């Protein structure tokens, strides 16, 4: 498997597409449909060139190339991580057997479903972020938005490649359907709830790339462990790209907090709205919202589907190969915290294999906390007492054991009326959203930035902040 | 388990004597107690196992093809005071489930074949019950057109399975008593729950037998009645039979090959690929049918873990249609026999507990009679594109409908496979009739509903691989039940009731502890100990 990417081909790839007539024909049939979708549903802002990175190799070093590209001319392609010819299945009943290079007929339906669900999220976020370019706080941010968008587009290509290459006619039909569902569409919405929420402003964008894309990172991490090797290799490379999205989220929230802290110090008040900053309690409410809808993406805490996928070898755990256990999980037990109608929490012991979604969610929550720590350090360094916190995982949930209960951010179970009365303190209100939107004025001048966010400490690829990242 | 062969010849029968006295034939059961197919039981009292029944099947077949001069067949026993005690209980008790089920299926098919000879060949069977006749023994008699019972004041007919063994008379007994002989259901209930059976006048009154014959006159009356039946026959005068030569079969571990049919056995995948070749010589349809029949029986009996059979064909569709025309339009007795034999062989497929998948590819000849094979399958895949190994070729897969597909080979439900596929859709069937006798492309076959899918050459290999792998992953039991349900739509017949109702109940009872458990009736039979039942009604 060459790691060099063939950019001379109509579809850039490192999977020797030119040798596979069947796949090439299928993908070349899909390509114009994708371009049509991008034109319809992609970024609304037109540009003359964006300083984007493009994958040139999937190896450890030097895989990215930077240059100004008009987004619709971006060379979307198919890149898989290098194949390990000795790779073996790490878990489940096939543990120790060689990884599959073909879809076993027995698991076709399940694998196809997993790939479709993952694939459905990728174009969804592009659709959700369609209008953001019109209100970008700087050229640097605008560039990052486009980078995220083209890479979500590439991730769609990655999933479509798998559907086309391994799932025959049904796979091709599913690949088309990925373009026909649209975020927030009343008739054909995206499959998962969080991907039908609007990303209305840039604070929401930073929160989305921090929390929701981070869910994507963990889902890809489980698919990277899959016994189906092409899926594993696809996800491994997607994870490298995904790191940039995390970076946009982490530094984006950093910069908002930094700016708010500056304004609090400068004006000696927490109420910085009048000074063009975003008050910390609004940031906390945004955090609460994006964090909790992202938790929903992990599915129900107990899941026989996840257990079946695990046993079959389709989907593993985060860092499966580094875990020190039997990789079967039928003998081990874990505790599940359950809310009760009487307002108490009980812990139920269950087979670990039934709690795989909870396991993944635990890894995710630990990762999310590190961001909160960063942001609190900014406040501490500025001598501000306010601290951000992640709400209790039972708070504001639509999916899983908590969904029928009313749980406050600190984990107290209350009745519906009590919860609704406090809602405005916990989740963004219409006024919050309107206020944040009122700050969203585009700043397209080189080196300039909007009032509510601090400039980044570094530019992209060693370029300064005032570099002309986007030609408008 | 040793490999079971179905090759037999009257010269070396161990359990039967076949005597031809035109227009009659005497088929006498004389089971060799030491001649069991598998060690571990003695075939006492003319009880039978699969080996005994394979000889019976051979005799019934040969009578039809080799002896057109025979118009009535007297089925009787060569033993004194005993006609037949039925299937051997020790054999049943000691056999694994799939063996019991496969044994019952084969014996049922042979009983149906006896009725088919009576109905369609003018070779009418008469049971001369010259001694006690129980269980499977009486079920053999039930397959005959007439039953004569010796009136010796002791010989009975009986179906004692329920009271003695805790199982059913599963070789058509329950069905034929009520549906064929029209025994009233309350009398049938009494009869089937009595271990000692019914004799004399009552047996006649209840229609369990047709006539009582005094012991002294038994042979003479039997012969007289057989001659009366023979007089009703439409078998031709002075016809010359043909000899069913031994099959030319070569075998190794993963292949069974005949001149017209080859099976490739893929044990890892659990798949058999059966390739049927079109005509290259005269007499193809009979030769191919014999091979296919033998192959089905061998695979069913010897390869229970190969759960999917893939059917392919190779050859010229026009040659197939020419060969079938000769037989379909021939009004001679032999053409008639060939058609009915092919019909019975297709019926074997219909009741075979394997997933059947037809692959229709360029170079194949799924036309007319061979298209029936594809229609008997659970799914049909047709390649819409050039041959996989030659993408520049202009050759494309085609299927051809002919008269053969519109009633010449009815299924057990009395319908053609097309009528079953499009049950109640008369307009569609009319449309199909108008499309007879021309090559239908993959696109047309899809439009006409004759194939499940028509993947193109790009998708073909992957689609088929995934279909076969997916099939192999499913529960074999659920598949057997599912397929049997889908294959037989519409009306019930004695045949569908035997295979779909009686057999299904029997197979359930066979696996229940009340029959097969250590304290079950089947296992305790003959030990002097009483069975202990779980009393819950299910």
Automatic annotation (TrEMBL), chain A:
Gene Ontology terms describing biological process: phenylacetate catabolic process
GO cellular component, as recorded: cytosol
GO molecular function, a single term: oxidoreductase activity
InterPro entries reported for this sequence: Aromatic_CoA_ox/epox (IPR052703), Benzoyl_CoA_Oase_BoxB (IPR017635), Ferritin-like_SF (IPR009078), RNR-like (IPR012348)
Gene3D superfamilies assigned: Ribonucleotide Reductase, subunit A (1.10.620.20)
PANTHER family in UniProt: 1,2-PHENYLACETYL-COA EPOXIDASE, SUBUNIT C, PHENYLACETIC ACID DEGRADATION PROTEIN PAA
Protein name: Benzoyl-CoA oxygenase, B subunit
Organism in which the protein naturally occurs: Amycolatopsis methanolica 239
TrEMBL record, chain B:
GO molecular function, one term: lyase activity
Keyword hit for Lyase: yes
Name under which the protein is recorded: Benzoyl-CoA-dihydrodiol lyase
Alphabetic keyword roster: Lyase
Pfam families assigned to the protein according to its UniProt record, in alphabetical order: ECH_1
Disordered: annotated segments: 519-538
One GO biological process term: fatty acid beta-oxidation
Natural source organism: Amycolatopsis methanolica 239
């Amino acid at each position: 498997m060459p790691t060099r990417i063939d950019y001379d081909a109509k579809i850039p790839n490192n999977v020797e597409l030119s040798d596979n007539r069947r796949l090439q024909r299928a993908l070349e049939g899909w390509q114009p449909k994708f371009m049509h979708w991008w034109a319809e549903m992609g970024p609304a802002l037109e540009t003359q060139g964006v300083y984007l990175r493009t994958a040139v190799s999937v190896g450890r070093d030097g895989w990215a190339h930077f240059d100004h590209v008009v987004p619709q001319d971006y060379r979307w392609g198919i890149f898989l991580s290098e194949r390990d010819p000795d790779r073996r299945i790490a878990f489940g009943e096939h543990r120790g057997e060689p990884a599959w290079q073909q879809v076993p007929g027995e698991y076709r339906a399940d694998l196809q479903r997993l790939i479709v669900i993952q694939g459905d999220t990728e174009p969804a976020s592009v659709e959700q972020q369609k209008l953001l370019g019109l209100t970008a706080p700087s050229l640097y941010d605008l560039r990052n938005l486009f980078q995220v968008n083209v890479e979500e587009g590439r991730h769609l290509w990655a999933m479509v490649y798998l559907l086309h290459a391994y799932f025959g006619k049904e796979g091709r039909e599913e690949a088309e359907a990925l373009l026909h569902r649209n975020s927030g569409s009343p008739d054909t919405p995206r499959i998962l709830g969080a991907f039908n929420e609007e990303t209305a402003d840039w604070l929401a964008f930073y929160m989305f790339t921090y929390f929701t894309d981070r869910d994507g990172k963990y889902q890809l991490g489980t698919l990277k462990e899959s016994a189906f090797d092409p899926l594993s290799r696809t996800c491994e490379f997607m994870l490298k790209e995904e790191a940039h999205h995390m970076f946009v989220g982490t530094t984006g929230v950093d910069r908002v907090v930094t700016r708010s802290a500056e304004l609090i110090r400068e004006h000696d008040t927490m109420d910085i709205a009048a000074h063009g900053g975003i008050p910390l309690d609004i940031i906390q409410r945004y955090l609460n919202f994006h964090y909790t809808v992202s938790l929903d993406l992990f599915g129900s805490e107990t899941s026989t589907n996840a257990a079946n996928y695990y046993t079959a070898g389709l989907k593993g755990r985060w860092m499966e190969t580094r875990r020190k256990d039997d990789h079967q999980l039928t003998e081990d037990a874990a505790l599940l915290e359950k809310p009760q109608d009487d307002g108490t929490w009980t812990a139920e012991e269950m087979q670990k294999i039934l709690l795989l979604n909870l396991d993944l969610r635990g890894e995710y929550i630990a990762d999310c906390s590190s961001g909160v720590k960063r942001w609190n350090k900014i406040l501490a360094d500025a001598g501000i007492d306010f601290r951000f916190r992640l709400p209790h995982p039972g708070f504001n949930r639509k999916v899983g054991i908590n969904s029928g209960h009313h749980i406050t951010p600190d984990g107290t179970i209350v009745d519906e009326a009590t919860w609704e009365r406090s809602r405005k303190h916990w989740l963004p209100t219409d006024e919050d959203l309107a206020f944040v939107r009122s700050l969203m004025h585009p700043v397209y001048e080189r080196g300039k930035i909007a009032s509510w966010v601090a400039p980044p400490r570094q530019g992209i690829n060693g370029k300064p902040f005032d570099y002309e990242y986007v030609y408008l | 388990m040793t490999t079971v062969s179905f090759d037999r010849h009257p010269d070396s029968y161990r359990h039967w004597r076949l005597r031809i006295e035109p227009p009659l034939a005497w088929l006498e059961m004389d089971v060799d107690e030491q001649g069991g197919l598998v060690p571990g039981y003695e075939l006492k009292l003319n009880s039978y196992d699969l080996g005994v029944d394979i000889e019976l099947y051979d005799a019934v077949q040969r009578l039809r093809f080799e002896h057109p001069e025979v118009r009535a067949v007297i089925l009787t026993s060569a033993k004194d005071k005993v006609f037949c005690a039925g299937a051997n209980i020790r054999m049943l008790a000691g056999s694994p489930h799939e063996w019991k089920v496969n044994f019952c299926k084969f014996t049922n098919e042979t009983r149906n074949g006896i009725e088919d000879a009576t109905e369609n060949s003018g070779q009418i069977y008469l049971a001369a019950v010259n001694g006690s006749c129980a269980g499977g023994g009486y079920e053999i008699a039930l397959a005959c057109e007439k039953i004569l019972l010796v009136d010796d004041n002791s010989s009975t007919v009986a179906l004692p399975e329920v009271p003695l063994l805790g199982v059913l008379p599963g070789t058509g007994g329950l069905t034929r008593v009520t549906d064929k002989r029209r025994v009233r259901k309350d009398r049938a209930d009494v009869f089937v729950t009595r271990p000692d059976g019914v004799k004399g006048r009552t047996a006649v009154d209840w229609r369990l037998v047709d006539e009582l014959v005094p012991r002294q006159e038994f042979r003479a009356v039997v012969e007289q009645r057989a001659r009366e039946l023979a007089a009703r026959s439409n078998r031709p005068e002075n016809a010359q039979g043909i000899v069913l030569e031994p099959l030319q079969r070569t075998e190794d571990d993963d292949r069974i090959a005949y001149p017209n049919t080859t099976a490739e056995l893929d044990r890892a995948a659990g798949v058999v690929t059966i390739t049927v070749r079109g005509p290259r010589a005269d007499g193809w349809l009979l030769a191919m049918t014999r091979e296919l029949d033998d192959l089905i029986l061998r695979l069913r009996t010897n390869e229970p873990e190969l759960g999917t059979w893939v059917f392919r064909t190779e050859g010229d569709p026009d040659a197939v249609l020419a060969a079938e025309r000769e037989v379909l339009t021939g009004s001679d007795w032999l053409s008639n026999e060939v058609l009915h034999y092919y019909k019975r062989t297709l019926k074997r497929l219909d009741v075979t507990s394997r997933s059947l998948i037809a692959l229709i590819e360029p170079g194949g000849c799924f036309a007319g009679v061979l298209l029936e094979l594809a229609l008997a399958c659970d799914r049909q895949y047709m390649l819409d594109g050039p041959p996989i190994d030659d993408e520049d070729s202009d050759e494309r897969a085609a299927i051809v409908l002919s008269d053969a597909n519109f009633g010449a080979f009815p299924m057990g439900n009395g319908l053609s496979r097309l009528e079953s596929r499009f049950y109640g859709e008369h307009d569609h069937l009319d449309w199909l009739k108008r499309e007879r006798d021309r090559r239908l492309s993959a696109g047309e076959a899809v439009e006409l509903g004759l194939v499940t899918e028509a993947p193109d050459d790009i998708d073909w290999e992957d689609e088929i691989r995934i279909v076969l792998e997916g099939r192999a992953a499913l529960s074999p039991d659920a598949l057997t039940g599912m397929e049997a349900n889908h294959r037989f739509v519409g009306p019930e017949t004695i045949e569908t009731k035997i295979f779909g109702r009686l057999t299904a109940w029997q197979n359930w009872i066979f696996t229940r502890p009340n029959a097969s458990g250590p304290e079950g009736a089947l296992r305790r039979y003959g030990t002097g100990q009483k069975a202990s039942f779980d009393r819950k009604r299910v």
